Amino acid sequence: MSSNVFQRIYTKLEAITKATVTLKATGVSNDELARVAGRLAQVVKIKKDLVTLQVFAGTEGIPTNAHVEFFGEPPALNVGEQLSGRFLNAYGEPIDGGPKVEGERRFIGGPSVNPYKRKQPSELIPTGIAGIDLNNTLVSGQKIPFFADPDQPYNQVMADVALRADVDKIILGGMGLSNDDYLYFRQKFEDAGALDKIICFINTTEQPPVERLLIPDMALTAAEYFAVDKNEKVLVLLTDMTLYADALSIVSNRMDQIPSKDSMPGSLYSDLAKIYEKAVQLPEGGSITIIAVTTLNDGDITHAIPDNTGYITEGQLYLRKDTDTGKIIVDPFRSLSRLKQLVINKKTREDHSQVMNTGVRLFADAANAKTKLENGFDLSDYDMRCLEYAKEYSTKLLSIDVNIKIDQMLDTGWSLFRKYFKPEELGIKQSLVDKYWNR
C-alpha cells in the first residue's frame, strides 16, 4: 500500500451496515483502498458522490464520525527481482523482517491473458511424485487442484512439489494457514536453500479472513511479472481455496446477498475462474501453472467449492490414505490430468502410456480381488498376485513420499510387472515388452 501525500480525510458517515459504510466523497475510484477508523476498507460502489466501502474486518463499533482516509489507488504490488525469497502479507508488505520491496507498482486483479496470445501447453513439469508424473502428468500452463480431506498432509505435498518442480519461480499463496504451517513452509524452503526462487504471500488464521481474498491476486500479479515480462516458468501454489471461498461467503453474507448452493455466493464460479484462468503458456516461453488445494468437507466432492472447481480446472489430484499400506497416495482412480496426453510419449519415454495404463489396470484388478475376499469368494492365483502387486505399487509408485525421476518410475513399473506377472498378462505391445522386460 502506498501513502498518498494528498490523502483525503472525511469524518461523516451517511450509513453503516454489517460490512459496509457509506459517505459522501469526491475523486474516488472503484476498488480504491481506504482506512475507516483504522480498519482497512475498499470501495465497492460509487453512485454520484455517495461512496460505499467494504470494511474488511467488519463495521462493529465504528461510529458515524469515524475518520475515513482514502489511499488514492486500488490494492497494488511492487514487482521486480527483489520479490525473490520474500515472505509478504496480503497487502504485499514484508513479514520476514526484511526491507520494503521496491519495484514497478502494479495493480492486482487485472484480466487474464488474451486467448489469442496463448500457446497450447506442451512442456512437462516433473514433480518427482510418481502418482502425479507417471499417472497424471502436469503440463506448463495447466490449472489443477488437489482435493484432500482436512487431516491429510496436503501442505507437505505442496512444499515437496515446490522444491522438486523444474521451474524458474515458485509463488506460494497461503490462505488461512496456521502459524505452524507458515513456519513449516518457511523452514522447509530455507533448509532446502531454495529461497532465491520462492516468493510467499501469507495470510494466517490470526488475521481477518477477508484478507485471504487478496492473496491469489497478489500471487498472480507477481507470477505475471516473471512469466510475461521475464519469460520465466512460474508455478503458483494456492492453499487452501476452500478457506478462500469461505471468506467470499463471509463477505457476501455481510453484504446481505442471497446465498446460493452450500451457503456460497452466487458469484463463486466466476470468482474461482478469475483466479484459475490466469494459468497460461505464452509463445515466448514464459508460463504460469497453478496447483491449488481444495479441502473437502467429509470427502464431499459435490459441495459447491470442489464442484465449481472441477468445471474450471483441467483435472484434479485426489489424495487419500491407502488402507493396505497406511501411505497417503495420489488416488489413480479419482485423479485426472486432462492435458497429460500433450506430453506423455512425446516429452517422456515411448513406453509411458502403456506402463501407466497397465499399472492402474492391475491396481483395479487388485481392488476387485479385495472385494471378492471381503465377500467370502475364493481367490485365483492371479487375484493373489494382484493383491501383492498392489501393495508394492502403492508403496513404490503411488505414495506421495516417493521422489524419483520419470524414467525411474517407468523402470519401477516394469520391475513390478516382472515380479508378479507374465508378459502375456500385461496387454503391453510386444515391441515394448521385448525392449524393456529385461532391462
Distinctive features:
single chain; 439 residues; alpha/beta; Elongation Factor Tu (Ef-tu), domain 3; Rossmann fold; 7-stranded antiparallel beta sheet; 31% helix
Number of domains: 3
Q: What's the CATH C level of the largest domain?
A: Alpha Beta
| Rg over alpha carbons | 25 Å
Distance between the termini: 59 Å
Query: Tally the helices: what do you get?
Result: 11
Indicate the CATH topology of the largest domain: Rossmann fold
Report on the architecture of this protein.
Helices cover 31% and strands 22% of the residues. The relative contact order is 0.12. The N terminus is likely disordered. Helix 2 packs parallel to helix 3, helix 8 crosses helix 10 and helix 9 packs antiparallel against helix 10. It has 3 domains: 62 residues, Elongation Factor Tu (Ef-tu), domain 3; 267 residues, Rossmann fold (3-Layer(aba) Sandwich); 85 residues, no CATH class. It is elongated and about 80 Å long. Strands 9, 13, 14, 15, 16, 17, 18, 19, 20 and 21 form a 10-stranded mixed β-sheet that branches. Strands 1-7-4-5-6-3-2 form a 7-stranded antiparallel β-sheet, with no helix packed on it. Strands 8-10 form a two-stranded antiparallel ribbon.
